[in-house]
Model the fold of this input.
Amino acid sequence: MSQINRLPGGQIDRNQTLNFTFDGKSYQGHAGDTLASALLANGVRLMGRSFKYHRPRGVLTAGSEEPNALVELREGARKEPNTRATTAELFGGLTARSQNKIGSLRFDLMAINDRFSNFLTAGFYYKTFMWPAAFWEKIYEPIIRNAAGLGSISLQDDPDAYDRGFLHCDLLIIGAGPAGLAAALTAGRARAQVILADEDFTLGGRLNSERLAFADQSGADWAAQTVAELASLPNVRIMARTTVLGAFDHGIFSALERVSDHLPQPAPGKPRQVLWRIYSKGSLLCAGATERPIAFENNDRPGIMLAGAMRSYANRWAVTPAQRVAVFTNNDDGHRTAADLHAKGVSIAAVIDVRPDAPQSQDYEVIKGGQVINSRGRLGLKSIEVVLPGGATRQLTCGALGVAGGWNPNVHLTSHHRGRPEWLPQIAAFGPPSQGPKTLRIAGAAKGELSTADALRGGADQAASWLGENGFSAAAVELPDAEDAPVSMTPFWAVKGCNRAWLDQQNDVTVKDVKLAHKENFVSVEHLKRYTTLGMATDQGKTSNMGGLAIMAELTGKAIPEVGTTIFRPPYTPTAIGAFAGRDRGTDFRPIRKTPSHAWAEEQGAVFVEVGLWLRAQWFAKAGETHWRQSVDREVRATRESVGICDVTTLGKIDVQGTDAATFLNKIYCNGFAKLAIGKTRYGLMLREDGIAMDDGTAARLAEDHFVVTTTTANAVSVFRHMEFARQCLWPDLDVQLISTTEAWAQYAVAGPNARRLLQKVVDPEFDLSNEAFPFMACANITVCGGLRARLFRISFSGELAYELAVPTRYADAMIRRLMQAGEEFEAVPYGTEALGVMRIEKGHAAGNELNGTTTALNLGMGRMVSKAKDSIGSTLSERSGLNQTDALKLVGLWPVNPANPVPAGSHLMAKGDPVDAAHSQGYVTSACFSPNLGHSISLAYVKSGDSRMGEILRLVSPLTGFDHEVEVVSAHFIDPKGERLRA
Amino acid sequence: MIINHPLLGPRDSAEFTYMGDAKLIDRPDWQAPEALAQFIDYGYMRDNPDGAHRELWYHEQGDRSFLVVTRDTTTHEIFAVELARDVARSRGQSR
Amino acid sequence: MHDLIATTALGAAAPCVDHHGPISLTEEPGFALASIAARRGAERATVLAIRRMIGPTAPKAGHWAGERIIAFWTGPDQWMLEAPYDSDEFLFERAIKEAKGKASVTEQTGAWCRFDLRGTGLAAVMERLCPINMATFIAGSATRTSIDHLGCFVLCRSEDHISIHGPRSCAAALHHSLLTAIRAAF
Done:
């Protein structure tokens, strides 16, 4: 069987024959075909099964509004379900499968649902699965889940790349039919920057589907010729295969370009699709209109389609769905379909026009005042039953029926700013809202201008008017002499008395369901939608909403505009989630920041941990170490016994300069900085305005008007933002300038009793590092390795004699190697964030676990640091009584009474004898580790009045993990409580 | 959205970080007799208007200016964009 | 003279160069940077200091200017100075000298990596990276924007030459983004 339904003519390339398969069977089509047109050419009408009743279905439309012909395209990881056959561009080797069936497409076992349709009506789920309640989770839900959905996904990673990008234009023209092309020509010739986007792969819209659009040439030829001129203009960007998905604020639109969907797979390096963000000064919607069906009994059989689609298949793709067809119409448009197919040699069974005064034809029978009331043919249309004006019925044999119920403007984008479509009585359809997106104009059929001449004029006029208002001089464009038939419409929505007449074919909503909704008082348009699911499928009811509204209007005795309509939301057509994710997936989800010693750390066997965007060395596993604790314990011991080195570049550094720098820091930190001597560093605690601790760090005074502030790694960005807020919004007249220097300097902590001896080997000899010359908390600009500028800070997070050495980042790699080399004689070790954490817990230093967004300076044991002699952010609100309860949480240390027990973070603390519940919690553990120096676990914890409960035994409980054992409250300073080491 | 930056022209709001009500500029005097009550108002009380709203936007991915943007909360129409520093000065914030 | 060997932002001894289609992508390690921000009330003096270093005009918002030493606008009363590293490693010291206490200067050389895109059709690459309108982003334009979540300075050096300064720690991520965009465009 080969292309038995192919007609002469059309815009396909017959020289290019393409092989493809559908449900495993091989077929041939031509370049220019869609999957739908190629299947029809091969006599295939049955393409899928419906959602609920598993009714056999074929194509209804020839475009993106298609509700029925949804297939799985491609195979393996590229398999994509629910793809519309009507927009899938044919390529050689394409594979497609039908979906939503058990067994074969022709003998779908789930078709049994159709027999039980009386039970599967609207609200079926709500009514049926109410009891017994226990059945829901175990029985009903799995069955429903199994039955729900149409296609199946591959469950493999999508191998294709998705991109996104940004485009700018003066005028965005959405849709390249007659209105869009006329507008683009007008604006293009006026030298405006124009983007012309159309979802189709061939521009021209309905011009490609109409035989008699223009007097002296075919619409398709004029479209091609116009596109060629536009393509020659450097200020016009033509974007075919590009769907404008949504209208956003201030002229921003999103558009999906299908770069590679018409290819077997994307070319190397190329994305499958690109999601563009288009910034437009003006925009013009020329999205055309969608034809609507007429509801009658069994109107969903394969072969029954919209009359305009049938005409598209015949004229553009040279295909007829059957050798003998009929047309059912309520307007003149349907007659065009019959005439066009007849002209291509297709036998016309009859045109059934509901109007008694329908036009006559010399070529085929017209049944005036007739109605199609039923159809036959299990897997495809075989005949229709027509009722004649007198009431007699006739059977007409035909393999396809074109249905023409009028046209609905494609107003979707005009609704994206909450505008409600407004009724256009002359075409009995909803047109664009008067309150649409501010910069969006509308022209052509999307505005209700349904004739070709009106569309051309409308497009040109709207473009010219926009250009005039925006400083372009636009010349009038000569337009072809086009079909200008007056369009008027006497609506006819549904054949009287029909029930199983489909409105929404994708969600299987029938006239009967609307009647039921009415009977149960779900009469508001929003209720109707949700109760019946009308228009809630992936097509957003492009072909179905109007019919449902009209029937509800009739049932309630209201006019359609009184019933109202729901609004459309982005995206205009279903869009792959991958396109929204773009490049932000996998390891590209967000950028990775590497420390300046990263390459060296990798060589040392570092295991990395993500800290924000940073990758930091967590520990350095040595040969023979099989558990992370071995590495960490070794690093801690070696540091405390001799010397260790850690990359601390990730800590935020902010350069604060200006004559008011000290005044500024006085306002940022709760403790005082005005009197800090040059060459000294001070610990600072920063509060939020509500009195909660925000961040801590150090500020080193390098000069009278120059400080370097450090922040925690996690808060580097937010502290900078906070300081800019203070500088610009709170104290705009302070002379202070801020800039981040986090990455300008690579910073290494050198800690341990041999730290000074190690550093003396790299610091140039003119700098005296003795305790007297460079004591604890000193800072200085120095040079190292024979003249490289560097900064040295004598600060300690570990509690050891420690320094932080900063060098220009480009020398960071060389510096870490030099430090390790200099440290060889001391058996210096590199240590990672785990050892860093262990040592700071042993020392009782607070970190992010303690500054957790709920705690104050008082909780941290730093209440007295909050200076009352000055104004600083957070100082006033930190005085609130709620933050100053007598039993406030205080930071303490804990150790287990039985040294074998851990003291895990997150555990709660209970007084002995109290019940274990939230009301009796005495506090909670914030940080915990195994202390290699003490030989057991230790932790930091917040305990109510903890500072006065030293020595008390508490119960540590964790109902989640089952821990319940005794701990003793101790000082948080487990190591060197007097601070002798760091001052050594 | 597009924010028309007073120095840089129209910029995508994606380059900005929203920083809340522009009333945050009006930080009370810490030595006022009712300072605590004023700070509680300042910290917690917001008008949440249906319509024009003055708010702070921080051009974090741009020039790091704080801007005061007057925006309609229902339509997103933007009526005015000012440098927060100028607004702060005009409202008496100094040093 | 110290004996430490510098590495590029991508971590190698030599800069990375890629060619694809009409575009070349070059890692540029040979520049020094210093930020200069006017002290309160010294906006004019700062502009004059910049002029002494770069030439007759200090750049306004959205622009760069200069020859061997250039300056680009980074914020209200703030600029970044850039010069070849070999001749001007101590650019920040020169700026401090010229500022005469009227501006705050901070060395920024190590904070940034720089990649240069050269060739025809750069707009096709840039439109996949950031929201800059390339139709108006002509030679002399400079702005900061977000490229794949990274705050970057983008300078149009000439019609067929754009340079991008990104955070040095993210050099590999930025390089990957740029290369991906070039390959997608051509």
